[in-house]
Design brief:
- The chain is an all-alpha fold.
- It is built from 3 helices and no strands.
- The chain has helices spanning 40-49, 55-71, 75-124.
- Helix 2 (55-71) runs antiparallel to helix 3 (75-124).
- The termini are far apart.
Length: 131
Amino acid sequence: MERSLPPYEPLAEGLDMEGLPRSTVVTVEPPPRPPPRDHLAWSLCSVLYANFCCLGFMALVFSIKSRDRKVLRDYSGALSYGSTAKYLNITALVLNIFLVALIITLIATGTITMMNILHQQQEQYPFHRPT
């Protein structure tokens, strides 16, 4: 099977090959990398709501340093500071969840213990009730 070539049109009168471009160069640039995350909003929430052992404040400091590095286009420094802020935020969040669970557990067990003590006192001294 032979392929037929597409028909070519002759050049218009007065044009020659010297006046036409020989080749076209297209430069393709890679898409710009997205800037590293600085976790500033998360750090602000950690400072305001979960500032356990000042971990939220330290995360805020590292987030601001990461943002400064990003402005200076030092992406490796921004990535380093941003990841440190992320790990500090995670640590503050986990410790805060643990602390809240511990407080709830202590309040619940303390309430149960107090109710048992009051019940035992009422059984020992049945006539000492509030009037």
